[in-house]
Amino acid sequence: MKDNIKWVLLIPGIIVIIGLAYLVPKLVGVGSGNTPTQPVNPGVQQQINDAQNRINTYSAQVKTNPGDVASVKNLGEAYLDLAQSQEQNNQTVNDANRNFKNAIDQFRKYLAANSGDVDVTIDLGFAYSQLGMSEVALRELQAAAAQAPNNQRAWLNIGYIYLQTGRTDQCKAPLQKAVNLNPNSDEGKEAKQFLDQANSGANAGLTPISP
User: Fold this and answer.
1) What's the pTM?
2) Helix (H, G, I), strand (E, B) or coil at 42
3) 113 Cβ partners below 8 Å, 6+ apart?
4) Are residues 197 and 122 in the same domain?
5) Which of 55, 110, 150, 183 is most buried, with most CB under 10 Å away?
6) Which domain holds residue 57?
7) Is 211 contained in some domain?
8) What is the CATH number of the domain that holds 150?
9) How far is Cα 166 from Cα 48, in angstroms, rounded to an integer?
10) CB-CB contact of 141 with 125 (8 Å)
11) Crossing angle of the two packed helices 93-113 and 118-130, in degrees rounded to 10
């Protein structure tokens, strides 16, 4: 009889243990809406932390002084860096895409007051391309190239988007332009790599360029 009582008393504890064993894995990542990812590369995690710190700093500055366009630009660049680092870290697509959109918002605010900033226009086009908005990206990048014909980064990005979207014939001229401007720069070497891929017909598995 006493043994039966002991088992009865143990049942609630067993139920609690089983419940915790089921629930604990479910609680991982609660609040983020993300599926748990692989361990973070320490170098990439440092980049994420640095970008987030910059976002906090520049967000506070913009909130205090909305007319501080330099901080708006810096905030956009910080969001762009964070989004790229999240991609490297195999974060969820939603994390990176949200911050590419945040970068776009800040770049557009900045360009409303500084439409002649070619580098920011290129960053804007790059952010659009990372969201799969290739036509919008090309529009921004072509505007940058028209404004600054010797900007190697603009031609590289234009050629890359054409290649990435399967328009091999259209990618060759802008990539060759990027190579001709300076074949020894990082941009020139990337352009040469993509141009070789286009000429060989191997456009699958492209490595994304930096903005």
Assistant:
1) 0.77
2) helix
3) 69
4) yes
5) 110
6) 41-114
7) no
8) 1.25.40.10
9) 32
10) yes
11) 150
Residue 170, domain member (yes or no): yes
State which of 114, 137, 152 marks the end of a domain.
114
Last residue of some domain: 98, 114, 130?
114
User: Does residue 181 lie within any of the structural domains?
Assistant: yes
Domain count of the fold of the chain: 2
Let me know whether 101 and 123 are in one domain: no
In a shared domain, residues 131 and 81:
no
Tokens of 86: 């999240």
Which portions of the chain are predicted below pLDDT 70?
1-40, 90-91, 202-211
Q: pLDDT, tens digit, for every residue of 44-84?
A: 889 999 999 999 999 999 999 989 999 999 999 999 999 99
Give the span between the Cα atoms of 138 and 154, in whole angstroms: 10
Instruction: Tell whether 71 and 110 lie within a shared domain.
Output: yes
- Give yes or no for a contact between 59 and 75, defined as CB atoms under 8 angstroms apart: yes
Residues 129 and 153 in one domain: yes
**pLDDT number for residue 89:** 76
The CB-based long-range contact list for 80-87 (8 Å cut-off, 24+ gap) reads: 80/123, 80/126, 80/127, 80/211, 81/47, 81/50, 81/51, 81/54, 82/48, 82/51, 82/52, 82/55, 83/127, 83/130, 84/130, 84/210, 84/211, 85/44, 85/47, 85/48, 85/51, 86/48, 87/130, 87/208
Integer Cα distance of 77 and 59 in angstroms: 12
Contacting residues for 167 by C-beta, under 8 A, at least 6 apart = none
Tokens, residue 9: 């008393």
- Is 20 domain-assigned? no
The tokens of 122 are what? 């290129």
